[in-house]
Specification:
By secondary structure, the protein is α/β, with parallel strands linked by helices. It is built from eleven helices and twelve strands. Helix 4 links the parallel strand 5 and strand 6.
């Protein structure tokens, strides 16, 4: 099996099986839970840990708690974007930060006098990197960042771990901060999510040199291949491209039958159902957005495996294109 959709469909390496020692009882010593929470906070050097659902309703509640001038990168997850629209509908102040045609963030949209800014270290769907150090110099705002794909909490004041992205189970997300949100008691925390997400950090992650993917995709697909974003601007273990004149879902479903698993994006594309919102925000049409394909991986592939994958992509693409014609 060649798993190239890790950020959209992470590998489930174990069943959910939490020891009874992690259950939370009012009248007993909860030392094991407290040690788990402390280990999580210490690992990323934060004082506080909260859990909540990764939904637009929960993020709307979070924004109301923050209660200030808020901005959101349009490259964030749909749950945060939709919460932002609801926040504005309440008559509260919120701005969106746009994307350029090349997929990069429009840093000029960032205002100095913001209180909070939802902006992660990469753009969802395309994996284009965001310079959070540059962001921190442009505004006095507290930076709220989803670090599930990078685990890099530098230049962030509040960090979010998406349970689905890390464990494949759509339970609660985890938020780390330093006294910026109301404190939660153990009874309010989702211990199952904390344990599963913490265990996911134990997996060793290796990044394949994506230059091999680019080399062989260009070799076998030639002019039928094009890139929405430049490969050197994206996360090191990702690649985002498109194949002309077919819908990506046709290729993705066919290749899955041969145990090659890819996606048409991450987060916002919701698997195979919707064209990328991010690409349309960049100025591409809905039809063009439906051609998008993304690769994301957390294991090492040999060069001959990469060539095999690219050759298979090319062959399947031409078969589908011929049938469509």
């Amino acid at each position: 099996m060649y798993k190239l959709d890790t950020l959209q469909y992470p590998a489930v390496v174990k069943d959910i099986n939490i020891l009874k020692e992690y259950s939370n009882y009012t009248l007993k010593n909860n030392r094991q839970i407290e040690e788990l929470v402390l280990s999580f906070k210490n690992k990323f050097n934060f004082k506080n840990l909260n859990t909540m659902s990764f939904t637009q309703e929960a993020f709307l509640g979070l924004m109301c708690i923050l209660n200030g001038k808020i901005a959101i990168s349009i490259g964030e997850s749909d749950a945060i974007i939709q919460a932002g629209y609801q926040y504005k509908n309440l008559g509260l102040q919120l701005d969106f930060i746009s994307l350029n045609k090349d997929g990069s963030l429009k840093y000029d949209d960032i205002k100095k006098d913001l209180d909070y800014i939802f902006i992660s270290s990469y753009i969802m769907d395309t994996y284009v990197k965001v310079d959070l150090q540059k962001v921190s110099k442009l505004t006095k705002a507290k930076i709220i960042s989803n670090i599930s794909a990078t685990l890099d909490c530098s230049n962030s004041d509040i960090v979010i771990f998406d349970s689905y992205k890390l464990t494949a189970y759509a339970t609660s997300c985890i938020i780390l901060h330093n006294n910026l949100l109301p404190k939660q008691s153990l009874a309010q925390m989702d211990i199952v999510s904390i344990k599963n997400i913490y265990d996911s950090f134990l997996k060793e992650i290796q990044y394949t040199n994506k230059s091999y993917f680019i080399k062989y995709l260009k070799q076998y697909l030639k002019d039928d291949l094009f890139f929405f974003v430049q490969a050197d601007t994206t996360l090191t273990n990702t690649l985002h491209f498109a194949l002309k004149n077919i819908k990506a879902r046709q290729l993705i479903r066919t290749l899955a039958l041969g145990n090659i698993f890819m996606s048409n994006g991450e987060g916002c594309s919701l698997g195979l159902l919707k064209p990328s919102r991010i690409l349309q925000e960049m100025g591409y049409s809905e039809l063009e957005s439906r051609q998008a394909i993304s690769l994301s991986y957390t294991n090492e592939f040999r060069e001959k495996d990469i060539e095999f994958i690219c050759k298979k992509i090319s062959k399947t693409y031409r078969q589908i294109k011929a049938l469509n014609d």
